[in-house]
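Might you be able to review the protein record set out just below?
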Amino acid sequence: MDLNTSASSSAHAPLRLAVILASNRAGRFGPAVSDWFLSLAAQRADLDIDLVDLAEVDLPTSLSYDPDPVVKAVLDRVSPRLDAADAFVVVTPEYNHSFPASLKNLIDWHYGQWQAKPVGFVSYGGISGGLRAVEQLRQVFAEMHAVTVRDTVSFHNARAHFDQDGQHKDPEAANAAAKTMLDQLAWWAIALRDAKAVRPYGG
């Protein structure tokens, strides 16, 4: 196989984007934010999107190298989806200056699935807009050999931005921020996918 030809052709294949809805909290606001983001991302021809909703991923907090059949069944449903992804967007709230335990648990149950892939963030919360959660996540994903993109989308006092039907009241600025983040994410996803086609990542 001509590796240069393979790398070039891969740039034209849709990027597999896993959008991770991090909150599994009762009464969560996350679906309103993720629905808004998914509607924008779906307009891009360069993305093939898979929503991973952590309210549907019941992994124990006790990690194991040899999980029992029940846990293995959960991993069998979610791990291949993370493995197949070329890039990730994490939609996360901020809880007590940090991010949800459900997200940390998902990250810790996996390793190779994150390596040499880009991660973008859509955060929401009160006055901070979830940015403190994002700053901590950058450190966590660096440890997993992932690359986080610079620009984020954040909603300060998030509930005020959406109406009772979950529609964004004034989406122009948020839409522009999402486009910038997705453009950066796509650049890194293509670059890293092409690089791994030439030389597998050995982190």
